[in-house]
Amino acid sequence: MNPLYVALDFENKQQTLKFLEMNDLAKVPVKVGMELFYKEGPSIIKELKQSEHPVFLDLKLHDIPATVKRAMKNLASLEVDVVNVHTQGGSRMIESAIEGLTEGSQGDRPLLLAVTQLTSTDETMLKKELLTNHSMEEVVAHYAQLSKNSGADGVVCSVKEVKQIEKNCGSDFLKLTPGIRQADDDLHDQVRVATPYEAGLTGSQSIVVGRSITQAKDPRRTYDQIKEEFLHGKKQYRGSVT
Known about the structure:
Elements: E1 4-7, H1 13-22, E2 30-32, H2 34-40, H3 42-50, E3 55-61, H4 65-76, E4 82-86, H5 91-104, E5 111-115, H6 123-128, H7 136-149, E6 154-156, H8 162-169, E7 174-177, H9 196-202, E8 206-209, H10 211-214, H11 219-232, E9 236-237, E10 240-241
Parallel strand pairs: 1-2, 1-8, 2-3, 3-4, 4-5, 5-6, 6-7, 7-8
Antiparallel strand pairs: 9-10
């Protein structure tokens, strides 16, 4: 995986490509989620790949194994670099996803990550709405182990769970962490969040950053600052380095 993916949470292809071009973000790794993919379909992926952007296609598939296998076979043909599923779909679904990716790939298959729990989920929601009698830490650790045993390359988790997952699953099992914010940014709908500095300290191999970059006054400079903070442990706030 690449260390930093920019979440392209834009309404359409025109806004997306204009943002990348105007802000000198050629070839940077990007994440395409449901909003943009459902609007533009495979064409947005093809254009990004033609421009040499590594692509994490974040659709979080969760369905019966046969359906996920066929869907992943189609997604692999787009030559994306990383895709994901929900761990809650179970071991057979994860195994089927890998089968589909392998069948649909011309060369190396895309990396498969499994989502443990969304970063918008907290302990209260876990217990009262999802009727889970275990702690967030226990649930995420169990899901991570299930994902590894099923053949996934890694997980999508919050920074708060990275160390436990590494302890249980080893350092080679990939950890990608969304919910990344600079220290003075608005949290929006995220609850289990962290700064790039904190993510780097815990052992996350990759982070996803959206609004902190896409809504910054200088997106390119902010991208470079966040990447430096994550990789080299330099705390940075609005252009200053400490």
